[in-house]
Amino acid sequence: MPEISPLAKIESDARLLVVDDDNTVRAPIVKLLRLKGYRVDEAGTGEDALKRLEGATYDLLLLDLALPGISGAEVMRRARQLRRDLLIVVLTAHASAESAITAVKTDVVDYLLKPLKSEDLFLVIAKALEERAQLLRRQNLLNMIGDVMNTLRDPDQVESAAPTLIASAMPAQNGRLLELDRDKRVAILKTNPPRTVELTESEVSILVALMEKPNQVLSCDQLAQSALGYQGMDKWTVENVIRSVVFRLRQKIEAGPDAPHLIRTVRGRGYFFSPI
Asked: Dihedral through CA 106, CA 96, CA 90, CA 52, nearest 10?
């Protein structure tokens, strides 16, 4: 099965709201975006748009400024109050100085002039979503580095596994010594009695990537891209981020973190998960 590109993942996960009182404009936009793979809702008035924004979480708002009733400018202002990181793209037939000032005040990411060209629509939305995804990845990376630094300053914060528990564990019916609950972010160790340890989001992502390809060596770069969504980082940063996550995982799930049996190292190549 071919791998899904990071941009395709962003597109398939993104939820958009299209707001325009002219159905002859709104309906084709909604259809195009759905065919492109986005999850799209629509609204024909400012009132309806605000109801939708209050009832669901959107990644991007495509908004016509010239709305009857509650204006597009007011919708932008209230939308920004509801969610600071909401991406807003303005639809307008006339880019006036007034609309430009309003856009600047509400941190609009781009303008689209009517009549729209489909290639312009796709380009603006994809670019906005990708830039935000990169920002979130950088923030997550900084958080991970902060966690590592805190762990190094206070090693007692790391939850160590009890060696006798895993060492004496019998393999489960599926031949594995642990199960992973991705939703609850916990690893269930098949010990006697079973033991549950909490994991961070990055630890879950790395463990999932390794468990999905048992006995297959994955490099730090592969893990950074497939599990954490990081691309374009230098080799030193990638290796240090992945090593720190693997270190914390081993402290939590291995009987002896210094002689791991579940997450194994192939020197110079990467890591692999051993199911038995």
From this structure: 70
- Structural domain contains residue 82: yes
Q: Is there a single domain that holds both residue 167 and residue 124?
A: no
Domain hosting residue 12, numbered range: 6-132
The pair of three-digit structure tokens given for residue 261, joined into one six-digit string: 């049996």
pLDDT in tens, 222-233: 998 888 777 666
Mean pLDDT of the 141-162 span: 52
What is the rounded CA–CA span in Å between residue 73 and residue 24? 22
CA distance 242 to 267: 14
CA distance 164 to 38: 50
pLDDT number for residue 163: 33
State CA 8 to chain mean position distance: 13
Asked if residue 207 belongs to a domain, the reply is yes
Residue 142 φ/ψ, nearest 5 degrees: -60, -40
Task: Output the pTM of the full model.
Answer: 0.51
For residues 204 and 252, state if they share a domain: yes
For residue 2, the model assigns a pLDDT of 35
pLDDT of residue 201: 84
Same domain, 122 and 41: yes
Residue 145 inside a domain? The answer is no
Coil/strand/helix, residue 181:
strand
Both tokens of 226, joined, read: 């497939």
Asked whether residue 149 is domain-assigned, the answer is no
> What is the C-alpha to C-alpha distance for residues 137 and 230, in angstroms, rounded to an integer?
7
pLDDT value of position 120: 92
**What's the mean per-residue pLDDT of the chain?**
78
CATH number at residue 54: 3.40.50.2300
